[in-house]
Amino acid sequence: MQQWEAVIGIETHAQLATQAKIFSGSPIAFGAEPNLQANAIDIALPGVLPVLNRAAVECAIRFGLAVGGKIAPRSVFARKNYFYPDLPKGYQISQYELPVVVGGSLLIPAGESDKEIRLTRAHLEEDAGKSLHEGAGQHFRGCSGIDLNRAGTPLLEIVSEPDMRSAIEAVAYAKALHALVRWIGICDGNMQEGSFRCDANVSVRPAGRQEFGTRREIKNLNSFRFLQQAIDYEIQWQIATLEDGGRIGQATVLFDPETGETRSMRSKEDAHDYRYFPDPDLLPLVIEESWIAEIRAQLPELPAAKRERLIADYGLPAYDAKVLTASLDIAKYFETAVTVAGAAHAKTCANWVMVDLAARLNREGREIGESPVSAQQLGSLIARIADGTLSTSLAREVFDALWTGQGASADEVIAARGLQQISDSTELEKLIDDVLSGSASLVAEFRSGKEKAFNALVGQTMKATRGKANPQRVSELLRRKLG
Amino acid sequence: MIERSLREIASSLAERRISSVELTRLYLDRIARHNPALNAFITIDEEASLAQARAADERLRRGDAGPLTGIPIAHKDIFCSEGWLTTCGSRMLANFVSPYDASVIARFRAAGAVLLGKTNMDEFAMGSSNETSFFGPVRNPWDLTRVPGGSSGGSAAAVAARLAPAATGTDTGGSIRQPAALCNLTGMKPTYGVVSRYGMIAFASSLDQGGPLARSAEDCAVMLSAMAGFDDRDSTSLDRPAEDFFRDLVSDRGSRPLSGLRIGLPAEFFDAGCDREIIELVDAAVADYRRLGAETVSISLPNMRLSVPAYYVIAPAEASSNLARFDGVRYGYRAAEYHDLIDMYRKTRAQGFGAEVKRRILIGTYVLSHGYYDAYYLQAQRIRRLIANDFAEAFRQCDVIAGPTSPTTAFRLGEKAADPVQMYLSDIYTIAVNLAGLPAVSIPCGFAAGLPAGLQLIGNYFTEARLLDVAHRYQMVTGWHLQHPRGFDSED
C-alpha cells in the first residue's frame, strides 16, 4: 500500500482592530445598517483618493515583531484588478511584490514537543463589501443587494509556508495564530463575524518524495472545525483520486459544511489575471527604525516567554502555564490575582482561575474580561484562604457572593456574613462537647473501631457551625476528646 | 471689463465699481450669446452662480475679501463640484451630480470665487483636440473650423473668447499647455503634487495635475495661489509651506530683469517634427529673452523621443484601472437592458465609454496583463526614470528649458481624429514634462497664418514662481498674450 503525505499551507485574513477603515476614515463597527458605514471613498465616487491609516500599519508591525519576522523598511501597495459588484473601485488595494512583513514563524504543539511553522509573509490590504443575494433578506426579490460597510476594512493577510502535514497541525497552527493576534491586540478573532478566516492550500505526495503535489486551495474557512473537516476531506479525496489513476488539477474549491465535502469553484484555466501594479495614489510605505522601536517597547510579553516565566517564577506545572497563557486576558487576570494573593499561593490562584472561575464563566457564556469577580477580588479571596480565614467551601460561598455583586471585596463579604472560620479552641471545644453528648451512638460506633463514624462526627460539628469551623482543628480536637 | 486682469477685477470689486452679481451676469450673458458656436461649456447654472455672486458681494461689503472673491471662474468638468453635474465629458457620467467638492473647487469656494460653469473636455481627459467629448467637440475661437486643443479645450476656448476671466484645467500629457498654445493663453502645469488631486476625476494618477488657464502669467499666479497647497486627502500632495506665486512678479529689476537666467534649448525640441513657422516664432521669443538679459545654452534630452511610447503605456495602464469603477452598479450610466451581471457590465461600458476611452482601456489592460507587464509597464517605468534623469542633467546647465509647446497650430476638426498616432504626436513636447513631474508653462509667442503658437518654459521642481516670473517678464515687453479672437468683442 502506497503511503501518502499531506502538505498544507494556510493563508489567513485577520481583520485589524482599528477604529477606522484602512484608506477612508469610515468607522468599522460590525452590524451597522447596510451602507451606513460607507463614505465617498468606500463607495468609490469619481475623484476620491485613499489615505493610509497608520493604525493599520502599526498592527502589521506588532504582528511582524511578535512572529520574529522582518519589517520591510519600504513596502508597496498594489492594485489587484477585477470586476465584482461589491468591489467598488474595480480593484482591491493590497500589497503584492513588497509586503510589509517578511518571514517569521510560529510554534505549534506537535505531540511531545513543539513544531515550528514558518511564515512566508504578511501584508496589508482592504476588504471588499458584501453581496446579499436573493433570499438573503426580504429586501432583495429578483435582485442582489450590495452592502459596502465592510469595504475598506483593514486586513492583514498572513501566509504560512507549506509546513503542516495534517489537518490537526493545520488547526493547531490556526489556533496558535488566532491566540497570537488576539494576544497582541491586533484582531478580535471573532470567527463568526469573519474577523479571522482561513484559506488552506492542500496537496498530497507519496511519503518520502521531495517535490510537492499539485495543490488545491480551500477558500474561506471560518471555524476551526470546518478547517479540520475540509482538509481531512480534501486529503482523502486527493489520495483517492490519485490511487484511482486520476490527476489533481490546480483549483480553488469551496467547503460545504452541509455535506462535509469540497467542490471546485474554478480551475487554473479560468483563474483571474489580476493585473497587479503599484497603486499610483499611494506612496511606498516607509517604516523608520524608530517607529518599530516604539512599537516594540509597547508590545506585551509574548505567550511563549510568559509561559516559561510562569513556570520559572511560580513553579507552575507546564500544563497550568499553557492554560493560563491561552489569552492575554487570562494571563493578566492570573498575574493580578497572584500579585494580590502573594506569589507563594500561585498554584492556588492557578486552580481557582482554571477551575472555579473558568467553570462559572463557561456556564454563563462570558469572557474573562467580563468576569463579575475581578482579579483583585479573587486574589484577596485566595489570601483569606491562605491565612486560614476561609475554608475552601466558605471561599466558594464568598466567591459566589462576589459574583452576584453582594459585596465589594472578600473581606466585606466575610465580615457581613460572619463567615470567618472558627479556629478558636475554647469555642470549638464547647461545640464539640455539645455534638458528642447528642451523638452517643456514633461515639459508641467509633469506639468499636468504625472509622467512618469519626467522619460523621466531624460532619456534625461542621454542620453545627454552618461550615465555619476549621475542619483541621475540629478533627484534632475530636481525636483528643475521643482518644 | 473683459480684458482686465484678475488683479484689476479684484480692485474694481473691492472698490465697489462693479458688483460680483453684475460681473457674473456679464459673463453669463456672454456665454449665452457665444457658447452655442463654441460648445465650451457643458453645464451652466445661472441661479447657482448668481447665488454665489450675491454671497461674494456680501463678503466684499464686509471687507472680508481675497484676491478671487466675487470673480467668476470656469472649471473643467473633471473637478467634482457639489450640487453640479460633473460629467468628465462622458456619457458614463452624463447624469452624475457630485455630492462633494474636489479640493480645488473647495479652495475656490472658500476664496469666494463664483463657479461660472463647467467646461467641456475630452472624455476622461483622453484627447488632444476636444473631439472625444460625449457632449460634442469644442471649437477654437480663433477659427471655428479648428480644434481648441485638449483635453482642457472647453476651458481654453472659454477664456480665449472671454467667456470667463480664467479657468481651471488638468494636464496629464499636455492638456493645459497644448490648448493654451492653440488658443493664445497662458497655461501652467505645476509640479506633480502641488495641486491636490482629491475630487479631480483620475485619468492617469501618477501624471494628472491641475493648473490654471488664463490670459497672462500674472493671472496664472493669482489662480495658482488659490489652487496650490497641501491636502491631507491626497497622499501624493506635497506638504510644503503655502507660496505666493505673485511675489516675484512685482519686483522692478530694470531693463534686463532676467540677467543671469540660463535658458536651455534642447536640440530635440527643434527638429523636423515641428512646423517651421512655429520654430521661427520660438526662436524670436528666445531672442526677446536674450534682450531681457537671459543667456541661452544648448542642451540635450536624449531620451525624449521615448516619451510618447512610454506615456502611452503608463497612462492607459493607470486609466484602465482608474476607470474600472464606472461599472453601472452605484452611479452614472447603466445600460437599459441586460440579462445578467456580466452582460450589464459589458453593455454599460460598451455604451457608456467612447471609442478613445475604450482604446486606452484596452491598451492599459493589455500592458498590465500577465506575461506583458515586464515588457511594457516596467520598461515604460524605466524610460520614465531615464527621462527624469535627462531633465536633472539638463538643469545642471540651465535654469529654464524653452521650446515649442505644440508642433503645430490648431488643426482642423476631424483632421487627426481618424489617426490616433498623429493625434498622440501633438503632445510630443509636453508629455516628457508629466513623466518627470516637472512644472511648465505655455505662453503665447506669436501667430502663424493667423493662428496662435505657444512657447513652453519648463522649470525644475517647485520653480513655479520662477517660471511665472520668467513668463511675466516676456509679457511685460510683448503683446502676443493680449491678442484676442474676433467676433467675441466686448458688449457688441
Which keywords apply here?
heterodimer; A: 483 residues; alpha+beta; 15 helices; 17 strands; elongated; B: alpha/beta; Amidase signature (AS) enzymes; 3-stranded mixed sheet; 12% strand; globular
Quick description:
Chain A has 483 residues and is an alpha+beta fold.
Q: How do the strands line up in the largest sheet of chain B? A: 4-6-5-10-11-9-7-8
Global morphology of chain B: globular
Query: How much is the radius of gyration of chain A in Å?
Result: 30 Å
The dominant shape of chain A is elongated
CA(first)-CA(last) distance of chain B: 13 Å
In oligomeric terms, what are we looking at? heterodimer
How many angstroms separate the termini of chain A?
A: 74 Å
What layout of secondary structure does this protein have?
The complex is a heterodimer of chains A (483) and B (492).
Chain A: E1 4-15, H1 54-66, E2 70-71, E3 74-75, E4 77-81, E5 91-95, E6 101-102, E7 105-110, E8 113-126, E9 130-132, E10 145-147, E11 154-160, H2 167-183, E12 196-206, E13 216-221, H3 224-243, E14 251-256, E15 261-267, E16 277-278, E17 285-286, H4 289-298, H5 303-314, H6 318-324, H7 328-341, H8 346-364, H9 375-386, H10 392-403, H11 410-417, H12 425-438, H13 440-447, H14 451-464, H15 471-482
Parallel strand pairs in A: 13-14
Antiparallel strand pairs in A: 1-11, 1-12, 2-6, 3-17, 4-5, 4-16, 6-8, 7-8, 8-11, 9-10, 12-13, 14-15
Helix pairs in contact in A: 2-3, 5-6, 7-8, 7-9, 9-10, 12-14, 12-15, 13-14, 14-15
Chain B: H1 6-14, H2 20-38, E1 41-43, H3 46-62, E2 72-76, H4 103-111, E3 114-119, H5 153-160, E4 167-170, H6 177-183, E5 186-189, E6 210-214, H7 217-227, E7 262-266, H8 276-291, E8 295-299, H9 307-322, H10 341-352, H11 355-368, H12 374-397, E9 400-404, H13 420-425, H14 431-436, E10 440-448, E11 451-459, H15 464-477
Parallel strand pairs in B: 2-3, 7-8, 7-9
Antiparallel strand pairs in B: 1-3, 4-6, 5-6, 5-10, 9-11, 10-11
